[in-house]
Amino acid sequence: MRVAIVTESFLPQVNGVTNTVRQVVEHLGRMGHEVLVVAPGPGPAEHQGVPVVRVRSVGLPGYRSFPIGLPDPAVERAVAGFRPDVVHLASPIVLGAVGLRVARKLDVPTVAVYQTDVAGFARHYGLRADIPTARWVGRIHRRATRTLVPSRSSFAQLEAMGVPDVHLWRRGVSLDLFDPGRRSEELRASWSGHGVAGSEVVVGYVGRLAAEKQVRRLRDLAGLPGVRLVAVGDGPERGWLERHVPGARFTGMLGGEALATAFASLDVFVHTGVAETFCQTVQEAQASGVPVVAPAAGGPLDLVAHGRTGMLYDPRDPAALRGAVRHLVGDPDLRARLASAALADVAERSWGNVVGQLVEEHYRQVLGSGSAPAAA
Q1: Which terminus has fewer CB within 10 Å in the chain: N or C?
Q2: Where does the Glycosyltransferase subfamily 4-like N-terminal domain start and stop, copy by copy (predicted)?
């Protein structure tokens, strides 16, 4: 099968869209499929032998390091020249809209993957474009042959927009990378105070330090007795956090084995954002054997069974995050039970299984579905 992937983000950017596309590209290649990637630049022109066509981009206002792809004739030239069987639209907004138009012109079926709450993103950056952005995203997905969503909350969101043929397609997790065996007591001790293992419970956030992740909620954990807060990642909110969360440790951006070791060396993982369509870092923490505290909103509702595989807190209650973390900090037996149950839950969520489902249940079905939906 020949698959053209038009994505709003790809390496060297590090985010959920990039990670998902990278995994799809790598596993499609291992399965023997031919793949082309079209992505905003600058960046590498190939990934593990797969060509990556780079198109024009501009930096997002307020977050200049995040490139937004622009309409570019190179998209049509690349996709038409590749002659795909199916066009995969990864979190389509601007570049994805161009990819959709090209696919419809070529009469090629499209699978559009909803992954980013763009309207929520716009609100967090004060762009005042959330309503027209939501309408635009809905229009793209209504015109795609099939839409895949990562969670029940996203399913309901797109159904409310009138999007037809919506299917649940969750994310995989790299079980060979994220593993409890990567825990480093030396690293944990370096975080937990005075170099003495066990002197403090290490509570960590992993992800972009950015407004859309609502990381300022981490200030709620400042001064919590017996807790050392660690922030793994980087972004425009780092300076604010360093000023307002005294005593927190900041590792900067980590990747690969260093990231997996940091995950496994935490005692508790916390997430702060309520606009997550999935929340991959929750799965990675669970695969690392770390108990999770996450908001009872969006993607985490599908990943965390409260009291069994983690703890959910009410993001509308200003005291809820601190209360949930305090409870876990004081109960090591509960931490162990939550971590064990979550680890068992993620054991079958390998990327190989997830990409296999993408091919067999979605690509192959749209190939036999006939023409694309009418304009909407």
Answers
A1: C
A2: 14-176
